[in-house]
Amino acid sequence: MDPLVIGSFEDFEKHNGQELGASDYFKITQSQINLFADATYDHQWIHIDPDRAKAEGAFGNTIAHGYLTLSIVPHLWEQIVHVQNLKMMINYGIESLRFAQAVVVDSEVRLVAKLKNVANLRGTVKAEVEVKLEIKDQKKPAFTGVLIFLYHFH
Q: For residue 112, what pLDDT band results from cuts at 50, 70 and 90?
């Protein structure tokens, strides 16, 4: 599916309260998990030691860091919405973030987004987007939350 194209507050407003779409599935690999562990200094064995994770862990293998799954949101978001005519975008906040299920290595995930609310704050567009990161072939999502973006259009 082609991303939804947004170029103004009015474009956002047309989709207020509506589902915006879903990204493609994205595979979480052990290499990505290891690189994230190195970048964040979080080398807990449940993430980086496959042998120990299989023998002692609750998930049968290593799992992605929760914050790793959150960090791929920009990549997946761009597959859902393409914002044009933009001076700047700011990640303003996250509300009600809940990590509901571990993402086991080599799982595929995708982002599903709904525009909860959009407001024009004196020329700055504040978009509140309900998101869930679905795990392929799993009932529970990896996480849910509301992402808040500030968009400054030309």
A: very high
